[in-house]
Amino acid sequence: xxxxxxxxxxxxxxxxxxxxxxxxxxxxxxxxxxxxxxxxxxxxxxxxxxxxxxxxxxxxxxxxxxxxxxxxxxxxxxxxxxxxxxxxxxxxxxxxxxxxxxxxxxxxxxxxxxxxxxxxxxxxxxxxxxxxxxxxxxxxxxxxxxxxxxxxxxxxxxxxxxxxxxxxxxxxxxxxxxxxxxxxxxxxxxxxxxxxxxxxxxxxxxxxxxxxxxxxxxxxxxxxxxxxxxxxxxxxxxxxxxxxxxxxxxxxxxxxxxxxxxxxxxxxxxxxxxxxxxxxxxxxxxxxxxxxxxxxxxxxxxxxxxxxxxxxxxxxxxxxxxxxxxxxxxxxxxxxxxxxxxxxxxxxxxxxxxxxxxxxxxxxxxxxxxxxxxxxxxxxxxxxxxxxxxxxxxxxxxxxxxxxxxxxxxxxxxxxxxxxxxxxxxxxxxxxxxxxxx
Length: 438
Prior knowledge:
Layout: H1 3-18, H2 20-47, E1 52-72, E2 79-92, E3 96-110, E4 113-131, E5 140-152, E6 163-166, E7 169-172, E8 186-194, E9 200-214, E10 216-220, E11 225-232, E12 237-241, E13 247-251, E14 254-262, H3 268-271, E15 280-284, H4 290-298, H5 301-319, H6 325-346, H7 351-373, H8 377-399, H9 404-422, H10 431-437
Parallel strand pairs: 1-10, 3-11
Antiparallel strand pairs: 1-2, 1-5, 3-4, 4-9, 5-8, 6-7, 6-9, 10-15, 11-14, 12-15, 13-14
Helix pairs in contact: 1-6, 2-4, 2-6, 4-6, 5-6, 6-7, 7-8, 8-9
């Protein structure tokens, strides 16, 4: 191999590396637009309501216990009596918790950016059965109070003042103060009043809950027995959290899901902590994240450039058609521009349409340019067909993330096999000499 051919290879490798700069700039632009989308979603959440987590209802029992203590002085044997008061609290989980409702999803826009709000219209019902604390020994219980507590991530999302029916009596929620160790979220409370020590209690409650939030709805299964049933016309739910639906159906007309969680499957203390993940959740996601898919596409930009340059190099060797390094550079820049067109178009139209339009524009441009550079429309059309295959494979990779490694590996194997097949009889040592003789 002569020096001229070696210099050409070095020039091609150098240009491939230099083209990483525009690819990196385009990837940075995609991340910037994605960050802007996130900021818009946060802004809409701040002006309406954020992601919602529902914990409760639970009953909090608070009481004080007066203890009598007797002490004997070891030196004198003198007996003294004293009293001290100890504060206690006890959390009571509902024996059963039932939530039935429907969810409507609304898309709000700020310019070209979008955010999704959900509106939950549900009915919450639960039953409590417990024995009030009883004094131990000669202790005396004081001020035994019971409070019903429901925790929400963002109470601004409560669309109305729900009326709570407890054993036929009507009550209203209040924004009470609860120890954050008991309820880390914003509490809605109903004061149940004084209760008698040692007495059994059995009551049922129900209330409507109209709740607005952004993107995510999570419900903690605090009951001994939990049954949650939700339905919506949104066709792209993402079921998450620690508990998946026992039954679900998802289609073009929406979804219908039902959860059943017993106390054996959940930890009550963790269910009261919104950061523990002890909840069932639904994310009302957009099935096509154009920024994520565009960023994934850019990662294949180097592969596009390498395969295209390899095709150019083989054309030079096999057809004795010299291609100037500047022509390599211009075609490489056209390949990089594809990704910029993709993100620009996808913000205004469906991703598949944006991809097809960007790919068609670049294929026509490169094919038309190479038809003149290589001296014939046949050569330009051949390269255009090859690029069409590359764009088709890339689109398949983006659509099927689970098969991305398999499809990418097969593409590289096919490219290497085609190169080896085309050059299997090539005399690389005599290539420079033949070029000089020609």
